[in-house]
Amino acid sequence: MASKSAYRSNRRRVPARLQGLMMAGLFLSGSVSIPGANATPAASPNAEAQFEPVPMPASSTTPQTELTDLEQEITRLYNEGQYTSATPLARKAVELAEKLGADHVEEIVAALLNLSSVLQASGEPAEAREALQRALILQEKAAGSEHPDLAVVLNKLAALLRTQGDYDSAEPLLRKAVKINEKAFGEDSLDLARDVKGLASVMEAKGDPKTALSLYERAERIVRNVLNKLTGDAPPAAGSDSDNLARKVKLELELADVLNDQSAILQGVNEIPRAQETLEQALEIRKRLLGSDDIEVAELLNNQASLLFKLGRLDEAKAMLEDVAKRYGNAVGSTRLDLVTIKNNLGELNQRLGDASAAQLQFQAAGTIFNEQSRQILPMLSLAEQRAFIDERVFPELSVLLDSCPTGDQVKNVYEIIYPWKGMLIDAMRKETQLNSLSGNQVFRDKIAKLKQIRSQMAAWFYSAIANDPNEWAKKNRELTEEKEQIERQLSRAQAADKFATSADLKESLALLGENETLVDVYSYNSCKKSASGPRYAAVIIGKSCSPTLVDLGAATEINAAVNQWNEDVVHLLEAKASWSALSSLIWTPILSALPKNTKKLWVCPDDELYRIPWHLFSCAEDKTEGLDIAEADSVREIFGLRRSQKDVATNGANVLLVGGVDFDSDGTGKKVETAALIDTTATKRAVVTTPAPKSGKAAPEQPSGLHMAFLPGTLGEIAAIETLAKSSGLPVAKITGASATEEAVVEQLASSAYVHLATHGIFLNDVAINRVFGKTNTRSVEIRASRQWSDYSMKRNPLVTSVIALAGANNESSAGGLNGILSAEEVVGLNLRQCKLITLSACETGIGRHVTGQGVMGLRASFIAAGAQSLLISLWKVPDEPTVQLMRDFYENLWVKKMTKLHALKQAQLDAQKKIYGRRPVNWAAWVLVGE
């Protein structure tokens, strides 16, 4: 979330113009911090903030001389900002170093570190990370785990992880580097100061300013001690006077860096006088050594303007910032994101000075630059890295723009900037389906196969946590995650650049809408306005021929409470009329009043908690909305993507795939396993969530996985009824049941089926507890019995493994120690399901997952849509068995026999359900929503 003040300070660590004086491995994040009580530094993952040429060991050999000359040319190009030209030379330097032989580890590591710096500056952090990881492996193998040279590589890798928002991975690397240098050099080492400073930056980013400030103060003491030894009474260090002068300059600049870091934290905790004092010391050093016009001085001037802002000296702050913006006018690489910060700061200042028009122009200029940068950065990152970037940079930028957005043309200008940001993650997931274009190359074909294998292993390993030692489980989980992400980055880079086009121009996209179609794009954002501060919801309403309108829906806390109340009423078997009415008045009434009068079909793109309601049911509530169709999609770009993709898909017939009556206790290969004690074949409800005791009366042994899927006999009748309807409509059917319903068999049929109906267990694991039992005995859910929490690391980096569909063999351990028979959302990514017109996930909670603000629901919903399915019928809570069977029969009859549209077929089935004996309770029928076309 953005802080109360949008004003941000720059935190670049070392001047680029003194690269030849820089010590290898200084921690540079190129980050931007947001002062304030809840502030965290915002990352700039497209570039390391400096280039530090690592000197090659001296040698008289010709290859070594060539390598040294090449390194000098790389340095020259980098310092001139010619990153594109420097990159192929840096790659060549690595090749030359490797040709020197395995005994020349120093040369290879140095070349890899230089390559990483160049790649980061040219906007290729993924490949830069791989270079650093290679260097780390080589260095540790050659010098051992306690050598100071290893600390250099650890620091540089941690710096890159920091810029990508992966603080949990960066912290242990830095703590290890600190220990190495403490042991090697004691407290008076600049190497140690580097690592302490890096760790401080990570702790600051993790929301621990107290620890961060203490670490920065320790780094300052170390640098001052080293500087005093160089300039005091002690004999000068060996070397020429020019060498000692260069070392002194380097140390003073390091000191200025640490003081700047301290100042930013002190601003954040509102210790303004002390912040001002430390910043003035840093400015004096940089001006004296670099000159007043240097860009590195401009960075500190931005931070000084921040202090003036906090002191209420707004006119002075504005004049200073305008000067800084001019200096950044031709910024390249990572400094483009710094320019975004400066533009936003100017917007904030103009807003405080009462010049709303000037503020809006600055915010929009910042948003435009950010849009350009995010398009370059995101496609080159893994899914977890993309999510970190979106959390740290996209959401705050979105909040700034929406918070300053008035009406009329300004809404249009802002919406043209922000609409591609929503759904970025799902769009990135969709790129996985395009990997088949690389399959003609043996290397890529092998990588694609390996990626598929790792995803399956990850899902199985995730659910086998209960049966394994926690440390062993965490280690393997991390290894699988890192291997998966490395392959993801490699394949992303291998795809053609045009594969990453984020979206078409808004005007071009709106042309795909019908005359009576309207879009409602809902956003969660953070407001800094005194009259309405805090999290809020807003909706942008736009049609083919009408300009965007912004509708403020109100405080998110109130709306989310209403959503939670309605959901709670529903699952507690209440009629929930009052809570639905309250919810409708909060979000539906203001939207309805702003719709164009000719609207016949409404596309709603929810956000955050508003994914948890069936929007299409609002049109059933009152007479004035009769005839209005309300469809759901995760983003506007998703709607237009569906419209475009449908023109390209040629179906091979309307095959229907039906899966039900799954034998969860089979061995996962299609063979029946006799485990009668674990299956209640007489069950008439959708789930038996406890393991039944055998006839002996002794408790059955707990499944090692902690999962037990009870047999669902009702699903056999469900798919039998659907089969009859399909055949009567002339649709060929493939039916898979019992032990035959393996993951392999189902996946094989998915890609060639137009209609898919999966009637089985759905599992979603939330963050609160794997330990608690959720679900009731009349639902299609399972009991999760676990002795410990799942790893936070896995939850954050692999959110898709927490949503699965259970298939044959789900209750049995595989030979690898994981589980067969679970199809996770992680595994669905990469399937090509563009042939599928409709996939029905007739199970519990298949529509929920991990909400990522502005990016949809990371779970089965996102994965199936990203894989190309045109429509998805999913559930929002644990659905009862008998009403579900009837509703599904009615839905398919409406769709195939009565020839209704998918949306009309669902609405009518739900309206009919209300007339039946169980219809007064929405728990029995309202959970189902249709997503997509």
Q: How are strands sequenced across the largest beta sheet?
A: 10-8-11-16-19-20
Q: How much of the sequence is in beta strands?
A: 5-15%
Shape estimate: globular
How far apart, in Å, are the first and last alpha carbons?
Answer: 32 Å
**Helix content bin:** 40-55%
Structural class: alpha/beta
Mean pLDDT: 75
**How many β strands by DSSP?**
20
Radius of gyration: 30 Å
Number of helical segments with 4 or more residues: 30
Q: Low-confidence spans: pLDDT under 50, at least 5 residues?
A: 1-8, 11-51, 234-238, 496-502, 673-706, 767-793, 815-819
Largest sheet data? 6 strands, mixed
Task: Describe this protein's structure.
The chain is of the alpha/beta class and 933 residues long. The strands form 6 sheets. Strands 10-8-11-16-19-20 form a 6-stranded mixed beta sheet, with helices on both faces. Strands 5-4-3-6-7 form a 5-stranded mixed beta sheet, with helices on both faces. Strands 12-14-15 form a 3-stranded antiparallel beta sheet. Helix 6 packs antiparallel against helix 7 (190-205). It is globular and about 95 Å long. Mean pLDDT is 75; it is low at 1-8, 11-51, 234-238, 496-502, 673-706, 767-793 and 815-819.
